[in-house]
UniProtKB/TrEMBL annotation:
Matches recorded under SUPFAM superfamilies: P-loop containing nucleoside triphosphate hydrolases (SSF52540)
Entries under Gene3D superfamilies matching the protein: P-loop containing nucleotide triphosphate hydrolases (3.40.50.300)
Membrane topology reported for the UniProt record: Peripheral membrane protein
UniProt keywords, alphabetically: ATP-binding, Cell inner membrane, Cell membrane, Membrane, Nucleotide-binding, Translocase, Transport
PROSITE patterns: ABC_TRANSPORTER_2
GO molecular function: ATP binding
The UniProt record lists the keyword Amino-acid biosynthesis: no
Protein name, entry field: ABC transporter ATP-binding protein
The organism's place on the tree of life at top rank: Bacteria
Length: 247
């Protein structure tokens, strides 16, 4: 998948400016930025949303199809799976988990047996449970499982560890990494945590105020950041690691 020269605005206010990047199948691109950098807006545009920001220029190539952003598209393109930041945005609170799982197979063509992926992500059998009877972390893992069984070509993760403790987060993302590698899935992960992005991504893009300010292989971004904001992020990550090591 590649994005070329994309921009988007809310009314007269520019939100995204000249965004370009590529993520190939089997690769993992981490998009890192602070609050308000435009990360979620970018993901929404890729999924076809035209609100709150309206894409104005640029194009996306996914699965060999060129899509100009200005024309827009209705609905998430087939082959893209998306895990939202908040599990409450992805699950129906009034339906049992098993029912929601079954719907996946009615609506989409995906692998049928949930047990291997549930086991791999540390989830119990859903039995008769409703989403609120599972912790937020379990719900987030459930959404990951639902995304992975679609066997997408592109998996989009919006702050995938926000509801997970550090140990579970590492285990779950390591499992996602294994599955993505096995199935040649391209992963696009948005996070404010450079250390997390560095652990799983082979490419990193850093955004500030709607613009890409640094981009490249993870080692290069970490060892030779050029932009002042990227240098700050890298320095902060080193501080985080030192704190963790001293704890
Ligand atoms: N519904 C909205 N109405 C007006 N402005 C909005 C709306 N949603 C987002 N914005 C603005 O768009 C910009 C980008 O927001 P966005 O949510 O994409 O940032 P983000 O990088 O995902 O931040 P965070 O990490 O805090 O979720 C911000 O300046 C924000 O104020």
């Amino acid at each position: 998948m590649s994005i070329d020269a994309m921009s988007a605005a809310i009314g007269q206010q520019g939100i995204l400016h000249d965004i370009s990047f590529t993520v190939d199948r089997g690769d993992w691109l981490g998009i890192v930025g602070g609050s308000g950098a435009g990360k979620s807006t970018l993901l929404k545009a890729i999924l076809g949303a035209r609100r709150p920001a309206r894409p104005q220029a640029g194009s996306m190539i996914f699965d060999g199809v060129l899509r100009p952003f200005a024309k827009g598209w209705s609905g998430r393109p087939k082959g893209i799976a998306y895990v939202p930041q908040s599990p409450t945005h992805g699950l129906d609170p009034l339906r049992r988990i098993k029912w929601q799982w079954t719907q996946l197979f009615r609506c989409k063509c995906c692998v049928a047996d949930y047990k291997p992926i549930f086991t791999a992500l540390g989830l119990p059998d859903p039995e008769m449970h409703f989403p609120h009877e599972w912790s937020l972390g379990m719900q987030q893992r459930l959404l990951l499982a639902m995304a992975l069984v679609e066997e997408p070509k592109l998996l989009i993760l919006d702050e995938p560890t926000s509801a997970l403790d550090t140990v579970i987060a590492a285990q779950v993302l390591t499992e996602v990494e294994r599955i993505a590698r096995d199935k040649s899935i391209a992963v696009l992960m948005v996070t404010h945590d450079l250390a997390l992005a560095a652990r799983f991504s082979n490419q990193i893009t850093i955004m500030e105020q709607g613009r890409i300010v640094e981009s490249g292989p993870t080692d290069t971004v970490l060892n030779r950041p050029q932009h002042p904001y990227a240098r700050d992020l890298v320095a902060h990550r080193a501080w985080q690691r030192a704190e963790t090591a001293n704890a």
